[in-house]
Design goal:
The structure is a homodimer of 165-residue chains. In chain A, 43% of the residues lie in helices and 5% in strands. Chain A contains six helices and two strands; from the N terminus they run H-H-H-E-E-H-H-H. Chains A and B meet through helix 1, helix 4, helix 5 and helix 6 of A and helix 1, helix 4, helix 5 and helix 6 of B. Chain B binds a DNA duplex (30 and 30 nucleotides) through residues 5-7, 28-30, 39, 41-42, 44-45, 47-48, 51-52, 58-66, 157, 160-161, 165.
Chain lengths: 165, 165
DNA sequence: CAAAATAGGACTCAAATGGTCCTCTTATTG
DNA sequence: CAATAAGAGGACCATTTGAGTCCTATTTTG
Protein backbone atom coordinates (compact mmCIF):
# COMPACT_ATOMS: atom_id res chain seq x y z
CA UNK A 1 0.00 0.00 0.00
CA UNK A 2 1.88 3.05 1.12
CA UNK A 3 5.52 2.56 1.54
CA UNK A 4 7.92 4.48 3.69
CA UNK A 5 11.35 5.11 2.34
CA UNK A 6 13.99 2.88 3.73
CA UNK A 7 15.78 5.76 5.30
CA UNK A 8 12.80 6.55 7.44
CA UNK A 9 12.59 2.93 8.39
CA UNK A 10 16.25 2.82 9.33
CA UNK A 11 15.96 6.09 11.11
CA UNK A 12 13.31 4.79 13.42
CA UNK A 13 15.28 1.69 14.18
CA UNK A 14 18.31 3.81 14.89
CA UNK A 15 16.40 6.07 17.20
CA UNK A 16 14.89 3.09 18.91
CA UNK A 17 18.39 2.10 19.94
CA UNK A 18 18.72 5.28 21.92
CA UNK A 19 15.32 4.84 23.43
CA UNK A 20 16.29 1.45 24.73
CA UNK A 21 19.16 2.65 26.85
CA UNK A 22 19.68 5.00 29.69
CA UNK A 23 18.24 8.39 29.25
CA UNK A 24 20.75 10.75 27.71
CA UNK A 25 23.12 8.03 26.68
CA UNK A 26 25.42 8.89 23.84
CA UNK A 27 26.39 6.72 20.87
CA UNK A 28 28.49 7.29 17.83
CA UNK A 29 27.65 6.45 14.25
CA UNK A 30 30.03 3.53 14.01
CA UNK A 31 28.74 1.67 17.00
CA UNK A 32 25.18 2.39 16.10
CA UNK A 33 25.72 1.15 12.59
CA UNK A 34 27.20 -2.04 13.94
CA UNK A 35 24.33 -2.54 16.30
CA UNK A 36 21.76 -2.25 13.59
CA UNK A 37 23.80 -3.96 10.91
CA UNK A 38 23.83 -1.06 8.59
CA UNK A 39 26.78 0.20 6.59
CA UNK A 40 28.40 3.05 8.46
CA UNK A 41 28.00 5.72 5.78
CA UNK A 42 24.30 5.03 5.60
CA UNK A 43 23.78 5.22 9.31
CA UNK A 44 25.90 8.31 9.36
CA UNK A 45 23.84 10.01 6.72
CA UNK A 46 20.63 9.29 8.53
CA UNK A 47 21.94 10.38 11.88
CA UNK A 48 23.09 13.64 10.41
CA UNK A 49 19.64 14.26 9.04
CA UNK A 50 18.06 13.50 12.36
CA UNK A 51 20.43 15.85 14.08
CA UNK A 52 19.68 18.58 11.60
CA UNK A 53 16.01 18.12 12.29
CA UNK A 54 16.64 18.56 15.97
CA UNK A 55 15.70 15.09 17.05
CA UNK A 56 19.23 14.19 17.98
CA UNK A 57 21.80 16.35 19.68
CA UNK A 58 25.26 15.87 18.34
CA UNK A 59 28.65 16.26 19.83
CA UNK A 60 31.68 16.54 17.62
CA UNK A 61 35.20 15.60 18.38
CA UNK A 62 36.91 12.56 19.71
CA UNK A 63 34.43 11.36 22.28
CA UNK A 64 31.56 12.72 20.30
CA UNK A 65 28.37 11.05 19.23
CA UNK A 66 24.66 11.51 19.28
CA UNK A 67 22.00 11.44 21.91
CA UNK A 68 18.30 12.04 21.90
CA UNK A 69 17.40 15.68 22.04
CA UNK A 70 14.19 14.91 23.88
CA UNK A 71 12.73 12.10 25.89
CA UNK A 72 11.67 9.17 23.74
CA UNK A 73 8.05 9.63 24.63
CA UNK A 74 8.26 13.18 23.42
CA UNK A 75 9.23 12.19 19.92
CA UNK A 76 6.57 11.08 17.51
CA UNK A 77 6.83 8.92 14.45
CA UNK A 78 5.44 11.74 12.40
CA UNK A 79 8.38 13.91 13.32
CA UNK A 80 10.86 11.26 12.44
CA UNK A 81 9.32 10.58 9.11
CA UNK A 82 9.04 14.25 8.36
CA UNK A 83 12.69 14.66 9.14
CA UNK A 84 13.74 11.86 6.88
CA UNK A 85 11.49 12.06 3.89
CA UNK A 86 10.09 15.52 4.01
CA UNK A 87 6.51 16.43 4.71
CA UNK A 88 5.03 15.11 1.55
CA UNK A 89 1.31 14.68 1.42
CA UNK A 90 -0.49 11.62 0.26
CA UNK A 91 -1.46 13.12 -3.05
CA UNK A 92 0.60 15.45 -5.16
CA UNK A 93 -1.46 18.53 -4.61
CA UNK A 94 -1.49 18.69 -0.86
CA UNK A 95 0.49 21.83 -1.31
CA UNK A 96 -1.85 24.58 -2.19
CA UNK A 97 -0.99 24.85 -5.81
CA UNK A 98 -4.22 23.76 -7.39
CA UNK A 99 -3.25 24.83 -10.86
CA UNK A 100 -3.67 21.36 -12.21
CA UNK A 101 -6.98 20.54 -10.59
CA UNK A 102 -9.17 22.23 -13.12
CA UNK A 103 -12.04 19.86 -12.77
CA UNK A 104 -14.60 19.72 -10.04
CA UNK A 105 -14.92 16.01 -9.34
CA UNK A 106 -11.21 15.80 -9.15
CA UNK A 107 -10.74 18.46 -6.58
CA UNK A 108 -13.65 17.21 -4.56
CA UNK A 109 -11.90 13.92 -4.23
CA UNK A 110 -8.68 15.65 -3.41
CA UNK A 111 -10.32 17.48 -0.58
CA UNK A 112 -11.29 14.19 0.94
CA UNK A 113 -7.75 13.03 0.64
CA UNK A 114 -6.53 15.88 2.68
CA UNK A 115 -8.76 14.78 5.52
CA UNK A 116 -7.47 11.27 5.28
CA UNK A 117 -3.94 12.42 5.03
CA UNK A 118 -4.49 14.53 8.08
CA UNK A 119 -5.87 11.59 9.96
CA UNK A 120 -2.81 9.57 9.18
CA UNK A 121 -0.54 12.35 10.21
CA UNK A 122 -2.39 12.59 13.42
CA UNK A 123 -2.19 8.88 14.01
CA UNK A 124 1.51 8.84 13.36
CA UNK A 125 1.86 11.89 15.50
CA UNK A 126 0.36 10.06 18.42
CA UNK A 127 2.76 7.16 18.35
CA UNK A 128 5.88 7.84 20.31
CA UNK A 129 9.34 6.56 19.77
CA UNK A 130 9.13 5.13 23.25
CA UNK A 131 6.24 2.95 22.27
CA UNK A 132 8.12 1.74 19.22
CA UNK A 133 11.13 0.81 21.24
CA UNK A 134 9.32 -0.80 24.10
CA UNK A 135 8.58 -4.52 24.41
CA UNK A 136 5.62 -6.09 22.57
CA UNK A 137 3.18 -3.97 24.51
CA UNK A 138 1.31 -2.26 21.75
CA UNK A 139 1.29 1.47 22.22
CA UNK A 140 -2.04 3.27 22.41
CA UNK A 141 -2.45 4.11 18.77
CA UNK A 142 -0.62 1.14 17.42
CA UNK A 143 -3.15 -1.12 19.01
CA UNK A 144 -5.82 -0.11 16.55
CA UNK A 145 -5.17 -2.51 13.72
CA UNK A 146 -4.75 -6.00 14.86
CA UNK A 147 -4.74 -7.70 11.48
CA UNK A 148 -1.69 -9.76 10.58
CA UNK A 149 -1.71 -8.70 6.94
CA UNK A 150 -3.75 -11.50 5.36
CA UNK A 151 -2.14 -11.89 2.00
CA UNK A 152 1.02 -9.91 1.57
CA UNK A 153 2.50 -11.31 -1.66
CA UNK A 154 6.08 -10.68 -0.70
CA UNK A 155 7.94 -8.45 -3.03
CA UNK A 156 11.37 -9.01 -1.56
CA UNK A 157 13.05 -5.69 -1.87
CA UNK A 158 15.73 -6.40 0.64
CA UNK A 159 18.23 -9.19 0.65
CA UNK A 160 20.07 -7.96 -2.33
CA UNK A 161 23.43 -6.99 -1.08
CA UNK A 162 23.86 -8.72 2.21
CA UNK A 163 27.22 -10.39 1.91
CA UNK A 164 29.61 -7.68 2.90
CA UNK A 165 28.85 -4.74 5.15
CA UNK B 1 4.69 11.80 4.33
CA UNK B 2 3.43 8.72 2.62
CA UNK B 3 2.60 9.21 -0.97
CA UNK B 4 0.23 7.29 -3.14
CA UNK B 5 1.20 6.71 -6.71
CA UNK B 6 -0.51 8.93 -9.18
CA UNK B 7 -2.20 6.04 -10.81
CA UNK B 8 -4.01 5.21 -7.63
CA UNK B 9 -4.97 8.82 -7.30
CA UNK B 10 -6.27 8.93 -10.85
CA UNK B 11 -8.00 5.64 -10.38
CA UNK B 12 -10.01 6.94 -7.51
CA UNK B 13 -10.99 10.04 -9.38
CA UNK B 14 -11.99 7.91 -12.33
CA UNK B 15 -14.09 5.63 -10.20
CA UNK B 16 -15.65 8.60 -8.52
CA UNK B 17 -17.03 9.59 -11.89
CA UNK B 18 -19.00 6.39 -12.02
CA UNK B 19 -20.16 6.82 -8.49
CA UNK B 20 -21.56 10.21 -9.31
CA UNK B 21 -23.96 8.99 -11.96
CA UNK B 22 -26.83 6.61 -12.19
CA UNK B 23 -26.20 3.23 -10.79
CA UNK B 24 -24.92 0.87 -13.45
CA UNK B 25 -24.16 3.61 -15.93
CA UNK B 26 -21.55 2.77 -18.52
CA UNK B 27 -18.73 4.96 -19.78
CA UNK B 28 -15.89 4.40 -22.18
CA UNK B 29 -12.29 5.27 -21.73
CA UNK B 30 -12.29 8.19 -24.10
CA UNK B 31 -15.15 10.04 -22.50
CA UNK B 32 -13.89 9.34 -19.06
CA UNK B 33 -10.47 10.61 -19.96
CA UNK B 34 -11.97 13.78 -21.27
CA UNK B 35 -14.05 14.27 -18.18
CA UNK B 36 -11.09 13.99 -15.90
CA UNK B 37 -8.63 15.72 -18.19
CA UNK B 38 -6.33 12.82 -18.45
CA UNK B 39 -4.61 11.58 -21.59
CA UNK B 40 -6.61 8.72 -23.04
CA UNK B 41 -3.89 6.08 -22.90
CA UNK B 42 -3.34 6.76 -19.23
CA UNK B 43 -6.99 6.54 -18.35
CA UNK B 44 -7.23 3.45 -20.45
CA UNK B 45 -4.39 1.77 -18.68
CA UNK B 46 -5.86 2.46 -15.31
CA UNK B 47 -9.32 1.35 -16.27
CA UNK B 48 -7.96 -1.89 -17.56
CA UNK B 49 -6.24 -2.51 -14.28
CA UNK B 50 -9.38 -1.76 -12.35
CA UNK B 51 -11.31 -4.12 -14.54
CA UNK B 52 -8.75 -6.84 -14.07
CA UNK B 53 -9.06 -6.39 -10.35
CA UNK B 54 -12.77 -6.86 -10.57
CA UNK B 55 -13.78 -3.39 -9.53
CA UNK B 56 -15.07 -2.50 -12.95
CA UNK B 57 -16.99 -4.68 -15.34
CA UNK B 58 -16.02 -4.19 -18.94
CA UNK B 59 -17.84 -4.59 -22.18
CA UNK B 60 -15.92 -4.81 -25.40
CA UNK B 61 -17.01 -3.87 -28.83
CA UNK B 62 -18.55 -0.83 -30.39
CA UNK B 63 -20.89 0.29 -27.68
CA UNK B 64 -18.64 -1.03 -25.01
CA UNK B 65 -17.28 0.64 -21.93
CA UNK B 66 -16.94 0.17 -18.23
CA UNK B 67 -19.29 0.21 -15.32
CA UNK B 68 -18.88 -0.38 -11.63
CA UNK B 69 -18.91 -4.01 -10.72
CA UNK B 70 -20.43 -3.24 -7.33
CA UNK B 71 -22.30 -0.47 -5.67
CA UNK B 72 -20.07 2.49 -4.83
CA UNK B 73 -20.58 2.02 -1.14
CA UNK B 74 -19.37 -1.53 -1.47
CA UNK B 75 -16.00 -0.51 -2.80
CA UNK B 76 -13.32 0.61 -0.40
CA UNK B 77 -10.33 2.79 -0.95
CA UNK B 78 -8.14 -0.04 0.20
CA UNK B 79 -9.34 -2.20 -2.64
CA UNK B 80 -8.75 0.46 -5.19
CA UNK B 81 -5.26 1.16 -4.01
CA UNK B 82 -4.46 -2.50 -3.81
CA UNK B 83 -5.62 -2.90 -7.37
CA UNK B 84 -3.50 -0.08 -8.62
CA UNK B 85 -0.31 -0.28 -6.70
CA UNK B 86 -0.25 -3.75 -5.29
CA UNK B 87 -0.56 -4.69 -1.66
CA UNK B 88 2.79 -3.43 -0.56
CA UNK B 89 3.31 -2.97 3.11
CA UNK B 90 4.66 0.09 4.77
CA UNK B 91 8.07 -1.40 5.36
CA UNK B 92 9.97 -3.68 3.07
CA UNK B 93 9.71 -6.78 5.13
CA UNK B 94 6.00 -6.99 5.61
CA UNK B 95 6.27 -10.18 3.67
CA UNK B 96 7.40 -12.94 5.92
CA UNK B 97 10.92 -13.21 4.73
CA UNK B 98 12.75 -12.09 7.80
CA UNK B 99 16.12 -13.20 6.58
CA UNK B 100 17.52 -9.72 6.82
CA UNK B 101 16.18 -8.85 10.24
CA UNK B 102 18.87 -10.54 12.22
CA UNK B 103 18.78 -8.10 15.03
CA UNK B 104 16.29 -7.93 17.80
CA UNK B 105 15.58 -4.24 18.12
CA UNK B 106 15.07 -4.05 14.46
CA UNK B 107 12.44 -6.72 14.24
CA UNK B 108 10.73 -5.46 17.33
CA UNK B 109 10.25 -2.17 15.61
CA UNK B 110 9.12 -3.91 12.50
CA UNK B 111 6.49 -5.76 14.40
CA UNK B 112 5.07 -2.48 15.53
CA UNK B 113 4.99 -1.32 11.97
CA UNK B 114 2.84 -4.17 10.98
CA UNK B 115 0.26 -3.09 13.50
CA UNK B 116 0.34 0.42 12.24
CA UNK B 117 0.21 -0.70 8.69
CA UNK B 118 -2.75 -2.85 9.56
CA UNK B 119 -4.48 0.08 11.16
CA UNK B 120 -4.05 2.14 8.05
CA UNK B 121 -5.30 -0.66 5.90
CA UNK B 122 -8.31 -0.92 8.07
CA UNK B 123 -8.94 2.79 7.97
CA UNK B 124 -8.68 2.86 4.22
CA UNK B 125 -10.84 -0.21 4.07
CA UNK B 126 -13.58 1.59 5.89
CA UNK B 127 -13.79 4.51 3.51
CA UNK B 128 -16.07 3.83 0.59
CA UNK B 129 -15.90 5.12 -2.92
CA UNK B 130 -19.34 6.53 -2.34
CA UNK B 131 -18.07 8.72 0.45
CA UNK B 132 -15.26 9.96 -1.74
CA UNK B 133 -17.60 10.87 -4.55
CA UNK B 134 -20.25 12.48 -2.43
CA UNK B 135 -20.49 16.18 -1.64
CA UNK B 136 -18.39 17.78 1.12
CA UNK B 137 -20.08 15.61 3.74
CA UNK B 138 -17.14 13.88 5.31
CA UNK B 139 -17.59 10.14 5.36
CA UNK B 140 -17.47 8.28 8.66
CA UNK B 141 -13.84 7.40 8.67
CA UNK B 142 -12.65 10.44 6.80
CA UNK B 143 -14.01 12.55 9.59
CA UNK B 144 -11.26 11.44 11.90
CA UNK B 145 -8.59 13.89 10.97
CA UNK B 146 -9.90 17.34 10.84
CA UNK B 147 -6.60 19.10 10.56
CA UNK B 148 -6.04 21.27 7.52
CA UNK B 149 -2.40 20.30 7.21
CA UNK B 150 -0.73 23.02 9.30
CA UNK B 151 2.53 23.47 7.52
CA UNK B 152 2.75 21.64 4.24
CA UNK B 153 5.81 23.23 2.64
CA UNK B 154 4.73 22.51 -0.89
CA UNK B 155 7.12 20.47 -2.85
CA UNK B 156 5.49 20.90 -6.22
CA UNK B 157 5.81 17.55 -7.86
CA UNK B 158 3.25 18.30 -10.49
CA UNK B 159 3.38 20.99 -13.06
CA UNK B 160 6.29 19.54 -14.84
CA UNK B 161 5.02 18.50 -18.19
CA UNK B 162 1.71 20.20 -18.48
CA UNK B 163 1.92 21.95 -21.80
CA UNK B 164 0.96 19.20 -24.16
CA UNK B 165 -1.31 16.30 -23.27
C1' DC C 1 -16.87 -6.56 -43.28
C1' DA C 2 -15.69 -2.12 -41.09
C1' DA C 3 -15.53 0.52 -37.15
C1' DA C 4 -15.23 1.14 -32.26
C1' DA C 5 -14.13 -0.62 -28.07
C1' DT C 6 -11.37 -3.21 -24.56
C1' DA C 7 -7.10 -6.62 -23.39
C1' DG C 8 -2.53 -7.05 -22.76
C1' DG C 9 1.91 -6.07 -23.14
C1' DA C 10 6.43 -3.89 -24.42
C1' DC C 11 8.92 0.14 -24.32
C1' DT C 12 10.95 4.76 -23.19
C1' DC C 13 12.16 8.52 -20.40
C1' DA C 14 12.67 11.06 -16.24
C1' DA C 15 12.96 11.32 -11.46
C1' DA C 16 13.51 9.49 -6.89
C1' DT C 17 16.17 6.38 -3.73
C1' DG C 18 19.76 4.00 -1.85
C1' DG C 19 24.22 4.11 -1.03
C1' DT C 20 29.18 5.75 -1.15
C1' DC C 21 32.87 9.05 -0.74
C1' DC C 22 35.42 13.24 -0.07
C1' DT C 23 36.61 17.33 2.28
C1' DC C 24 36.01 20.44 6.20
C1' DT C 25 35.35 21.59 11.02
C1' DT C 26 35.46 20.55 15.94
C1' DA C 27 36.97 18.43 20.03
C1' DT C 28 39.99 15.35 22.90
C1' DT C 29 44.18 13.69 24.51
C1' DG C 30 49.02 12.41 24.83
C1' DC D 1 50.75 21.36 19.62
C1' DA D 2 49.89 17.58 16.75
C1' DA D 3 47.41 13.49 15.87
C1' DT D 4 43.24 11.38 15.94
C1' DA D 5 38.39 10.58 16.34
C1' DA D 6 34.40 12.15 15.74
C1' DG D 7 30.35 14.86 13.13
C1' DA D 8 28.78 18.35 9.01
C1' DG D 9 27.79 18.88 4.53
C1' DG D 10 27.63 17.92 -0.02
C1' DA D 11 28.69 15.73 -4.56
C1' DC D 12 28.14 11.79 -6.92
C1' DC D 13 26.65 7.33 -9.19
C1' DA D 14 23.63 3.37 -10.08
C1' DT D 15 19.51 1.22 -9.78
C1' DT D 16 14.72 1.12 -9.40
C1' DT D 17 10.34 2.80 -9.96
C1' DG D 18 6.73 5.42 -11.91
C1' DA D 19 4.46 7.93 -15.69
C1' DG D 20 3.07 7.82 -19.95
C1' DT D 21 2.84 6.04 -24.87
C1' DC D 22 2.04 2.74 -28.41
C1' DC D 23 1.27 -1.45 -30.87
C1' DT D 24 -1.12 -5.62 -31.78
C1' DA D 25 -4.84 -8.80 -30.64
C1' DT D 26 -9.81 -9.74 -29.69
C1' DT D 27 -14.75 -8.60 -29.30
C1' DT D 28 -18.82 -6.53 -30.45
C1' DT D 29 -22.25 -3.88 -33.16
C1' DG D 30 -24.36 -2.20 -37.39
Amino acid sequence: MFRMTRQADYGIVLLACFAQREEGDSLNARDLAAEVHLPVPMASKILKALARAGLLASQRGVKGGYRLARRPDEISLAEIIDALEGPIGITDCSSGDHSSCDIAALCAVRGKWQSISGAMREALGSISLASMAGPPEPGPAAAAGRRPLPSAPARGKRARKEGSP
